[in-house]
């Protein structure tokens, strides 16, 4: 476990995963073991969304990639690259065509291994300043590599009636619950405030959209995404791809209390 801290804020990071963001003793991150989800944050890359109805195949310029829901990045382990009192950098690397064991097989998937036909390097950087945690994602790889990116943090709920404010719209927890597994789409949105016992604001750069998901009342996932996957048929997920250029692709998220 790595801790970043300052006068009144403590950030806990476990193998690259954000497991705690506590300000003045108030915990904002969903805790593992609590109802709702087994994780506290993860990334969705190089695709977002389910692939089962497309036989776990996603069309890419180099042919077809074997991908399970939300891609293969989560099956790779982060390596700690650097650390200071208020920052930490983690990296995942993938060699094109390498078979990666699928943790969902055989109970939730028919695919034992996942394969992506491109090299990539995925860097996740944390920086704590005052009561703001900046999370930066840097994607390096082959020019013209297709990709989507989603960040999937889960926030702990302390009150019975929390609300989400997005684009001057008030969203109730019941509205998120009603959408179910598809997740509530919030288009053209770069900032969301979760109003609970205490407030936290999630601001982004590069993503452009959010989706919100939960199946319980004690947590809610507020997820910056580059593409909402349920806007298309699973066989058409390729329509949501961006493509790497000559420079790295950089996405940012700020959690501010």
Automatic annotation (TrEMBL):
List membrane-spanning regions: none
Protein name in the entry: Aldose 1-epimerase
UniProt keyword terms in alphabetical order: Calcium
State how it assembles.
Monomer.
Q: Which InterPro entries match?
A: Aldose_1/G6P_1-epimerase, Gal_mutarotase_sf_dom, GH-type_carb-bd
Organism taxonomic ancestry:
Bacteria, Pseudomonadati, Bacteroidota, Flavobacteriia, Flavobacteriales
> Which cofactor(s) are needed, names only?
Ca(2+)
